[in-house]
Design a protein that fits this description.
Layout lengths: L5 E4 L2 H13 L9 E4 L14 E6 L7 E6 L8 E8 L4 E6 L14 E9 L3 E9 L8 E9 L2 E9 L4 E2 L18 E7 L5 E12 L4 H4 E5 L3 E4 L4 E10 L9 E7 L14 E6 L8 E7 L10 E10 L9 E4 L13 H11 L2 H7 L1 E4 L8 H4 L4 E4 L10 H15 L9 E4 L17 H7 L2 H16 L5 E2 L23 H6 L2 H7 L16 E5 L21 E4 L1 H17 L4 E4 L3 E4 L7 E2 L4 H11 L5 E2 L13 H11 L4 E2 L4 H13 L5 H17 L19 H14 L1 E5 L11 E5 L6 H5 L19 H7 L3 E4 L12 E7 L20 H13 L2 E6 L15 E6 L6 H7 L50 H17 L2 H19 L5 H15 L3 H14 L1
Parallel strand pairs: 15-21, 22-23, 22-32, 23-24, 24-25, 26-28, 27-29, 28-31, 34-35, 34-36, 36-37, 37-38
Antiparallel strand pairs: 1-10, 2-13, 3-6, 4-5, 5-13, 6-12, 7-10, 7-13, 8-9, 8-12, 9-11, 14-16, 16-19, 17-18, 17-20, 20-21, 29-30, 33-38
Family: Belongs to the glycosyl hydrolase 3 family.
EC number: 3.2.1.21
Catalytic activity: Hydrolysis of terminal, non-reducing beta-D-glucosyl residues with release of beta-D-glucose
């Protein structure tokens, strides 16, 4: 059995005398201690792949200083590891074993110990060990801590049984969640925060003989066993060992049913006994315990039968398995009844605690134990950005979520969980999924049918992994490209955002919700309500953010026309959930000032649910209530009373649930408000078919990342490309041309896919399967030479293609002024200058927003806004080589300078580099003509508008736009740009005749 941790305190004066004895003292059958670090200089200060000790921290000030100092009082040898620290974020040091050498085997020992010089500051010091994986920086982290509540040297002795799997951070998302000890890569120490301090450490070593319980464990094949009344549950008990070796000593498992809500002898036949795994039993051996249940004629809620296991000689299961007699005969379980009646019946049976649980959403990695799902009647779990199962496969996702759903079956009414993810451009959480262009690129396509198809592919891939709920699409109207979330917006014009809301139907299906139970549809979320795209630069008070989560100041009319408009159409489209924004809303003249959206009952209850008639449920953003004023009770009360139905409280689900219950009992939140919230949540669960089919339907998993799905993403990537300049018809390229390719984003799938790809912020490099732009050009048959930094000789080429732009980021972190700018990096600028100075050149900007390029525009022959095209770089190659024509249009205004920001279509003063709606084409048939042709098109467009003929109206305006662009060329002026941009807005709002009049105005000014 695991032994308690011990700590040996040795006064400094006695240390020298006691050291020889303490070093030699161990049980006769214990192996001798094995040194890990003596700190005598045998291990250098170095980092991977070398064997070495190194520091780390949250910023440049956080890593501690380290030295190997001569110490007369050193517990072992002449030196000790010493250092100082002053940490504001996080910091510490690590010893990683050499990555090019075999990992170490610690499995023969009981634990690890070391000497630590205490300063009696009362602070906890985290100590973690690294198990399995490829090396010390790609291993599984197991952690524990000790408290500095002593002075002088003390030997800290930690049995391996005290280490727990680290849930808040894993460098590779975990390996197998088993502390194997046979492939160890070192250790790390995390020092206290908010305290200037000194430390000293010495003589890290392995000690003692391993308990069999450290290498042998008993597990059941599940923690919950639902069974129909009258059926027999079969609990499989398995013995497993590290390294799959047979056990040395016998293992016994004593079992007995008892407790729970089922009545022994009435609801089930009690069982008890002992299972024995003799010495020499192979790993993987199983025994089965059967628990018979009894049938009666009554309709009942679910009843639980705990099966208590007592294990000797091995580690016991972490949870007591439970047999659950399924609920039966109750009206809410009748799929033939209308959803409204099922909801009413279920709600009438629920306790306040069960209702509070339904309003609570936890992060899957934030669960103290999976059993908390039943203990707290949790209604929902989510995966935050980067919170993925191991392995990160479709099967891994399905198994993980099914395991959570199984826990929910142990609740009284077996209400299934609704699991949510941020699949904002395809199932971007899943390795190998089809990653679409981000929304700004979808807006550039101006293709509502394609937007719907991208939503349909996303929904199919998400639902096939067992996830029924997607926190998408973002319906923000991005009004300032300095915002780090601007790429999540379809554009700056609410009319454009509304036109792309066909994505909702791609995700959910029909507006009446009748498709939600399909295996290829998910519940969608309109976010972030309301005005998140209008926050003023410099208004954010969140950390170092400059604009994200800031304040949107608007008149009531501006709010209606710009920010609320997309939500009106989303409600008409049947959107199932809405997520409020972190940002604050300040409506001029309403007397409230800036109020956080999660507290604005006038907007959530009044506008969204009342005036717009939204009948889905409102889910908070991640820990958003923590930003509300007052104590926690006030934060909970304020958000719930404002109309937030489910609270995303990733790690504080216990506190939220208990606080909400207290607020209701105190009368500060009404039971009617709770019933409204829970009714809305249950309605969507019934519509999704979760009560009948709570587990993953993986029948569509084979299509994840399939050629058919990637074809949709490829088309979206192609149609999203916006040709801003094309002097001399340089594009499309000819396959016979020798092409010199350079730039940081030509061959980087991570940069190409951007933030919210596998992790929250995304990452550069070879992160996901896909095709880079360079690879796409080669696959298209181009004669291509690549030099990332343009250092290769440039002579002898027909044309250069320089792919530059941004590296990945997400909300807040990507704000301009928070370590980001709208200018190209020095390396990108140098690559553009070198290539464009040597040959005709095409510059592609891979970015989440416009980049300031005006100072180099003269030397660039062709300029393309590529946005963040996703995993299908062939789509970009398709337009570069003419397999598809360029047809994309700017979804946002392209500024001349940062000083112009914010700049948007409709502004009174409007003089951009390129106007909203601009986009040249490489179609083989381009309209010709002049003022007379425009007049003819205007007359026909007016007729189409009167007849409601949208297809004809749009085509006529498009022809006129191309005519104007031909005349304008690169002679853009404010007199051209303003009517040109206005025309695109008028087109999207169905005013074809007025759009033609604006284009005629632009033509005359050109």
């Amino acid at each position: 059995m695991p032994r308690p941790r011990t700590a040996l305190l040795v006064p400094g004066a006695l240390l020298a005398a006691l050291l020889p004895l303490s070093a030699a003292a161990h049980a006769a059958d214990d192996p001798p201690p094995v040194p890990v670090d003596r700190f005598e200089g045998e291990v250098p200060f170095a980092s991977q792949p070398a064997d070495g000790i190194f520091t780390w921290g949250g910023d440049t000030d956080d890593p501690p200083t380290l030295s190997l100092a001569d110490r007369a009082d050193a517990p072992e040898g002449a030196k000790a590891l010493t250092g100082s620290y002053d940490i504001s974020g996080y910091g510490g040091f690590t010893h990683d074993f050499a990555a090019d050498q075999p990992a170490h085997d610690w499995s023969a020992h009981q634990g690890i110990r070391f000497w630590w010089e205490g300063h009696d500051n009362g602070k906890k010091i985290a100590f973690e060990i690294k198990d399995g994986g490829a090396n010390g920086e790609a291993s599984e982290l197991w952690t524990t801590s000790f408290t500095d509540d002593f002075s002088g040297w003390k030997q800290i002795q930690i049995p391996f049984a005290d280490f727990t799997y680290r849930t808040d951070y894993q460098p590779v998302g975990g390996i197998d969640h088993i502390l194997g000890l046979t492939r160890m890569w070192g250790y790390a120490v995390t020092l206290p925060v908010g305290l200037k301090g000194q430390f000293a450490m010495d003589d890290v070593e392995l000690y003692g003989k391993a308990d069999q319980a450290l290498v042998a464990s008993v597990a059941t094949d599940a923690s919950v066993y639902p069974v129909a009344e009258g059926g027999t549950a079969k609990v499989r008990v398995t013995l497993a060992t590290t390294g799959a070796r047979p056990v040395d000593d016998p293992v016994t498992v004593t079992y007995a049913t008892g407790g729970g809500t089922a009545t022994a002898g009435q609801d089930y036949t009690p069982v008890s006994g002992t299972l024995t795994f003799p010495a020499g039993t192979p790993s993987g051996s199983t025994r089965t315990i059967e628990v018979p249940t009894r049938r009666d004629k009554a309709a009942e809620s679910a009843e639980t039968i705990p099966l208590k296991l007592t294990v000797d000689g091995a580690k016991a299961p972490t949870e007591t398995p439970q047999v659950v007699i399924d609920a039966h005969g109750l009206p809410y379980l009748n799929a033939k009844l209308p959803v409204k009646k099922r909801v009413a019946d279920l709600l009438s049976r629920m306790s306040l605690a069960e209702k509070a649980g339904q309003m609570t959403q936890a992060e899957r990695a934030g669960l103290t134990t999976p059993g908390d799902i039943a203990s707290y009647d949790l209604g929902s779990l989510l995966s935050g950005g980067g919170s993925t199962p191991t392995p990160n496969t479709a099967e891994g996702w399905a198994q993980m979520i099914d395991g959570f759903q199984l826990q929910a079956q142990a609740t009284r009414f077996q209400i299934p969980l609704i699991y949510g993810v941020d699949a904002v451009h395809g199932h971007n959480n899943l390795y190998g999924a089809t990653v679409m262009p981000h929304n700004i690129g979808i807006g550039a396509t101006r293709d509502p049918q394609l937007a719907e198809r991208t939503g349909a592919v996303t929904a199919a891939e998400v639902r096939a992994t067992g996830v029924p709920w997607d926190f998408a699409p973002c319906l923000c109207v991005s009004r300032d490209e300095r915002w780090g979330r601007s790429y999540e917006s379809f554009g700056e014009d609410p009319a454009l955002v509304e036109s792309m809301e066909t994505m909702i139907q791609g995700l959910q299906g029909r507006a009446d919700g009748s498709d939600l139970s399909r295996d290829d549809k998910v519940l969608a979320t309109a976010k972030h309500f309301v005005g998140d795209g209008g926050t003023a630069y410099g208004s954010s008070t969140t950390g170092s953010y400059t604009i994200d989560q800031g304040v949107t100041t608007v008149t009531r009319q501006q709010l209606e026309d710009i920010h609320l408009a997309p939500y009106k159409s989303a409600v008409r489209r049947g959107i199932g959930t809405v997520m409020p924004s972190y940002s604050s809303l300040d409506i001029t003249g309403d007397g409230q000032g800036a109020v956080k959206m999660h507290a604005r009952g006038d907007m959530i209850n009044g506008e969204l649910k009342g005036k717009l008639g939204f009948d889905g449920f409102v889910i908070s953003d991640w820990n958003a209530i923590d930003q509300l004023p007052g104590d926690y009770a006030n934060q909970v009360r304020t958000a719930v009373n404002a109309g937030v139905d489910m609270m995303m409280v990733p790690y504080t689900y216990k506190d939220f649930s208990s606080t909400l219950i207290d607020e209701v009992k105190a009368g500060r939140v009404t039971e009617a408000r709770i019933d409204d919230a829970v009714s809305r949540i249950l309605t969507q669960k019934f519509e999704l078919g979760l009560f009948e089919h709570p587990y993953a339907d993986t029948s569509g998993a084979a299509a994840i990342g399939s050629p058919a799905h990637r074809a949709v993403a490829r088309q979206a990537a192609a149609e999203s490309q916006v040709l801003l300049k094309n002097s001399g018809g340089l594009l499309p390229l000819k396959k016979s041309e020798k092409v010199y390719v350079a730039g940081s984003n030509a061959d980087d799938i991570g940069n190409q896919t951007g933030g919210w790809t596998l992790t929250w912020q995304g990452a550069s490099g070879d992160t996901v399967p896909g095709t880079t732009i360079l690879q796409g050009m080669r696959q298209a048959g181009g004669d291509v030479t690549y030099s990332k930094d343009a250092s290769a000789p440039t002579a002898g080429y027909d044309v250069g293609v320089v792919v530059v732009g941004e590296t990945p980021y997400a909300e807040g972190v990507g704000d301009v002024g928070n370590g980001r700018s709208l200018s190209l990096s020095a390396a990108d600028q140098a690559a553009v200058d070198k290539v464009c100075g040597a040959m005709k050149c095409v510059v592609l900007i891979v970015s989440g927003r416009p980049q300031l390029i005006g100072d180099r525009l003269g030397e660039i022959d062709s300029l393309v806004a590529s946005w963040l095209p996703g995993t299908e770089g062939e789509g970009v190659a398709d337009v570069l080589y003419g397999a598809r024509p360029f047809t994309g249009q700017l979804p946002v205004t392209w500024p001349k300078s940062e000083a112009q920001l914010p700049i948007n279509v409709g502004d009174a003063s409007y003089d951009p580099q390129f106007p909203y709606g601009w986009g040249l084409t490489t179609r083989t048939t381009v309209p010709h003509g002049g003022a007379g042709t425009l007049a003819s098109l205007a007359a026909r467009a007016a007729t189409a508008e009167r007849r409601g003929d949208q297809a004809t109206g749009r085509d006529l305006v498009d022809q006129a736009r191309l005519l104007v662009q031909q005349k304008v060329g690169q002679r853009m002026t404010a007199a051209v740009a303003k009517p040109f941009a206005d025309a695109d807005h008028l087109l999207l709002t169905g005013h074809y005749g007025q759009a033609l009049a604006k284009l005629a105005q632009a033509y005359r000014a050109a």
